[in-house]
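Risk register update: the risk of archive-format incompatibility is retired. Evidence:
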Amino acid sequence: MAFRAVAGAGAMIIGALLDHDGAATGIGIGSGLVLAGLGDILPSLGVLAAMAAFLLLCGAWLLRRSLQRAL
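Archived output:
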């Protein structure tokens, strides 16, 4: 569950910041590798839960800002 939350929040941030799918794919793969490395080093679910909460807050804020600019 924590892995899905982190991945979903990261995808929300990437989608809100980038306009091109090619760049989003590259950043998604790179950040996925970084998170996988962190997951091997820090196996605690508390760390993942904190990352998910932080990324969800950032993603929600960035998505809201992006939508306000579009309107």
